[in-house]
Amino acid sequence: MSTPDVTIVEVGPRDGLQNESVHVPTERKIAFIEALAQAGHRRIEATAFVHPKAIPQLADADAVAAHLPTREGLLFTALVPNERGVERVERTSIMEWAIFTAASESFNRKNINCGIDDSFERFKPVLEAARAQGKRVRGYCSTVLHCPYEGKIHPAAAVAVIRRLFLAGCDEVSLGDTIGKGTPAEVRTLCGLLASEGLLSQCAVHFHDTYGMGAANALAAFEAGVRVFDSSAGGLGGCPYAPGAAGNTATEDLIFMFEGMGMRTGINLDLQVEAAALIEQVLKRPLPSHTYRAIRARGAPERPNLEMS
Ligand code: HMG
Ligand code: MG
Q1: Pocket test for ligand 1, best of 50, 165, 241 (most atoms within 8 A of CB)
Q2: Which H, E and C letters describe 281-305, residue by residue?
Q3: pLDDT averaged over every residue in the chain
Q4: What pTM value is reported for the model?
């Protein structure tokens, strides 16, 4: 298969499900992940080895990881917050471990029960084990634009944490607009600062869609040079420690936008819609993704219109 022009990291099975009130049985999660792989995804965030009381929806992380499909070129990611997370993830075949901190002290304390400096102390054993075991490490910096507790985040504060994640040894850092309040202008400013430090080419973006800015922000990041985009099937997602935040930018919306611009994503939109429909059946609520809803309303497969471009 040829290399896509943009890489979509499907975070639906982790970010998408972590905030759902409906219990999703492990086998339905596996079927969802299998359907996403069938759609063409090569990077899927499968689960999180976090405290089961913090995120009960992902308490079955060990079981999910034990039943992941194997396919050449398919990279699974899981959140690994600390040494206890390492003990759990190293029993699995997951090849990319994700550590997560934030540009905001207050969000970090709510989310992972420690401040920014302490979060890097906790990551040390994760990074050491990952290095020793040849795993890829993804770093998340949450609240890069806005924080639910501190308000607007100064771009320099976000850049400082992002830089630190790279210096700690992350292969990639994903920039989280955790509460989905950022605008394209803010994305451009942050990306510009990162580019001036030579860091942007290793960054992914992870936009939540609370204010409907997800696709616009992804486009702004694309125009600044970003080529890796996190999104979730159907626009699922949210964080229990980010009150009021909506789901991730929908994968279907990103596929529709990028393919409509002539960019290859490597993902089959019709099969992506089928994967989202599988999880919608379990959650029993309409998924917010615009493209998903438009395609389902027509009841027929659809392609972005490239004829006039
Ligand atoms: P803590 O309470 O500070 O941990 O939690 P601790 O080290 O003090 O340990 C307390 C107890 O927890 C111990 O058990 C540990 O064994 C256990 P005890 O001895 O009392 O019986 N424990 C664990 N158990 C299972 N797995 C573990 C683990 N660690 C400790 N890994 C911790 C710290 C980070 C674990 C906790 O706060 C936590 O799990 N937080 C998870 C929060 C989370 O998952 N949030 C959502 C993901 S982040 C997000 O959504 C943002 C993102 O999408 C990007 C964006 O949108 O911006 C990534
Ligand atoms: Mg998120």
Answers
A1: 50
A2: HHHCCCCCCHHHHHHHHHCCCCCCC
A3: 95
A4: 0.96
Lowest model confidence (mean pLDDT) among 2-6, 47-51, 115-119, 155-159: 2-6
CA distance linking residue 257 with residue 233, whole number of Å: 15
Q: Is the pLDDT of residue 308 over 60?
A: no
Q: Which residues contact 169 (CB under 8 A, 6 or more apart)?
A: 127, 130, 131, 137
Nearest to 65 by CA among 92, 85, 90, 39: 92
Strand partners, 175: 141, 205
pLDDT surpassing 80 at residue 299: no
What would the DSSP string read from start to end of 84-128? Answer: HHHHHHTTS---EEEEEEES-HHHHHHHHSS-HHHHHHHHHHHHH
So what's the pLDDT on residue 304?
A: 58
CA 219, 221, 223, 229 dihedral sign is negative
Residue 239: active-site member: yes
Is the distance from CB of 139 to CB of 174 less than 8 angstroms? Answer: yes
pLDDT exceeds 50 at position 309 = no
The H or E element containing residue 255 is helix 251-260
Residues with CB under 6 A from ligand 1: 15, 18, 48-51, 54-55, 79, 81-82, 84-85, 100, 111-113, 140, 142, 176, 178, 206, 208, 239, 241
Q: Name which residue leads in pLDDT, 303 or 205.
A: 205
Q: Which atom of ligand 1 is nearest to the CA of 55?
A: 44
Sequence-distant (6+) residues with CB within 8 A of 151 are none
Residue 62 in tokens? 């060990």
pLDDT confidence tier of residue 298, bands split at 50, 70 and 90 = confident
